[in-house]
TrEMBL record:
Highest taxon of source: Bacteria
UniProt function note: A probable RNA chaperone. Forms a complex with KhpA which binds to cellular RNA and controls its expression. Plays a role in peptidoglycan (PG) homeostasis and cell length regulation.
Organism for this UniProt entry: Limosilactobacillus pontis
Protein name per the record: RNA-binding protein KhpB
Originating gene: jag
Domain notes: Has an N-terminal Jag-N domain and 2 RNA-binding domains (KH and R3H).
Length: 259
C-alpha cells in the first residue's frame, strides 16, 4: 500500500484521502509510525500511514478446484528443492564483508555529521555567537567537529559547561539521525588539548592533597572522556584510588586514599 505522511495521524489520513479521491471513512488505514515532536529539533518525525480504499479489500470468490482421486500427491517446490548448505560461521568475518560494513558506517557518520554541523550552526546563531563548525575527523563510530569562532570563550562557556553540554546534545543528535553509538568530540581553539594538560595537573594536585590529608577529594562534575583520563592518570598510583560518583550530567571523580 502507498505510504502517506503528515504532522499528525489525522493530517496523514487527510493526505491519503485527497490522493486516493475517497473520503477518509472509506479507507483501510494502518499506522506505520506515530509522530514525535522531538526535543530541540532532535528526534522529530512525522506520522506515517498506509491506506487504500475499503473496496480493495473485498474478497474474491474462490474457485473450486477438483482433484482427481487417482492423482498422486504433488510435493511443493520448496519440498522438492534440495536443501542449501548453511552459511559457514566465519562468512560474516570475510574481509570484503568487514570492509563493506566499515564503509557503510563511515557513510552514516559522515551523513549525520553534515546534519550535525547545520544543527550546531543554528544553535550558535540563536546564541548570537559567530562560528564555523567543520568536521575534522570521521571514524566508524566517532566524529570530531572543530568550531572556529572569534569568541572561543563563549563557545566553551564557564568551566567548559557550554561545549560539554553541546557535545552531549550532539551525541543524542547523531543517535537520532542514523548514526547510533557515535562518540562526538567538539573542539575550539585547541581547547581539548589544553584541557587534557589541565586534567593531568589536576590529578597530581588531587593526589598530593589526598596523601597529605588522608581525606578523599571530590572533583567537579565532568564528561565521561575527562573522567576516564583522570582514572587512567592515577590507576597505577600506590597511594590513591579513584572512582566515579553521582549521576549524569553531574557525575564526578573521587580521589581517595588507597587504604
Amino acid at each position: 500500500m502507498p505510504i502517506y505522511t503528515g504532522k499528525t495521524i489525522e493530517e496523514a489520513k487527510q493526505a491519503a484521502g485527497a490522493a486516493l479521491g475517497v473520503p477518509v471513512d472509506q479507507l483501510t488505514i494502518k499506522v506505520l509510525q506515530e509522530p514525535r515532536r522531538g526535543f530541540l529539533g532532535i528526534g522529530r518525525r512525522p506520522a506515517q500511514i498506509s491506506a487504500e480504499p475499503i473496496a480493495a479489500h473485498k474478497p474474491k470468490a474462490a474457485k473450486e478446484v477438483k482433484t482427481p482421486a487417482s492423482s498422486a500427491p504433488v510435493k511443493s517446490a520448496a519440498a522438492q528443492a534440495p536443501a542449501k548448505p548453511a552459511a559457514a560461521a566465519g562468512d560474516d568475518l570475510d574481509p570484503a564483508v568487514i570492509k563493506a560494513r566499515h564503509a557503510a558506517n563511515l557513510k552514516k557518520v559522515r551523513t549525520a555529521g553534515d546534519q550535525l554541523v547545520e544543527y550546531l550552526q543554528e544553535i550558535f546563531k540563536n546564541l548570537e555567537i559567530g562560528t564555523v563548525p567543520t568536521i575534522t575527523a570521521v571514524e566508524a563510530h566517532a566524529i570530531t567537529v572543530d568550531i572556529k569562532s572569534p569568541e572561543p570563550g563563549r563557545v566553551i562557556g564557564r568551566h567548559g559547561q557550554r561545549i560539554n553540554a553541546l557535545e552531549q546534545l550532539s551525541n543524542v543528535f547523531m543517535n537520532y539521525h542514523g548514526a547510533p553509538k557515535t562518540v562526538v568530540m567538539l573542539d575550539t581553539s585547541n581547547y581539548r588539548e589544553r584541557r587534557r594538560q589541565t586534567l593531568h595537573e589536576l590529578a597530581q594536585r588531587a593526589e598530593t592533597e589526598v596523601v597529605a590529608s588522608g581525606q578523599a577529594v571530590f572533583l567537579d562534575p565532568m564528561p565521561a572522556r575527562e573522567r576516564k583520563q583522570l582514572h587512567k592518570e592515577l590507576e597505577d598510583n600506590p597511594h590513591v584510588k579513584t572512582y566515579s560518583h553521582g549521576r549524569e550530567p553531574y557525575r564526578s571523580v573521587v580521589v581517595a586514599p588507597q587504604n
